[in-house]
Amino acid sequence: AQTVTQSQPEMSVQEAETVTLSCTYDTSESDYYLFWYKQPPSRQMILVIRQEAYKQQNATENRFSVNFQKAAKSFSLKISDSQLGDAAMYFCAASLSGGGADGLTFGKGTHLIIQP
Amino acid sequence: EAGVVQSPRYKIIEKKQPVAFWCNPISGHNTLYWYRQNLGQGPELLIRYENEEAVDDSQLPKDRFSAERLKGVDSTLKIQPAELGDSAVYLCASSYGLAGVLEQYFGPGTRLTVT
User: Pick from A47, A101, A108: which is nearest to B98 by CB?
Assistant: First the structure.
């Protein structure tokens, strides 16, 4: 079975500091896609960053970057210079069925708290 | 550009009653998804449409859930009869194209409470 695991139910960081959220996954496919989504209390899922498994270079989007370790099946999200607006649930997600417009498999989420 | 629209935002019903959720995807998006998100969990895929065809409904509880996407645009998800365990947020998402993995755009969801 394809699974995505987030082992940190909650993380807390001081404003302006850096925090890393962990994610591991399991798949037998060689071609797949990984995502981090942010879900604020409004419930609207917002894509933060995406990584294609065939790309060795880690994806970055402004203050957000990933550490993609394909052999270890690990996909962590680093948020630099944390801001109050970053507070939300963060979900690691994957399309693990080898391409195509597949549905996503999500982890259980990490609740990120930003302390002022 | 308008995002994915869902209605209603909230729905409270008694068990054994029917309920329906509506989704209008982003214009031009041919792929539509319905997810269910239980409290404290990540979303789980219920059904995926390519245009008007349901191409993955393996996780849809077909004894009580049904869905349709007429003309490959709007979609309706129905539960009949609802059970207490159906209380959750129902999310609709859409994406464009058939090849590759595409960003899915999510709606705000419908929070269903079954009493």
Answer: A101
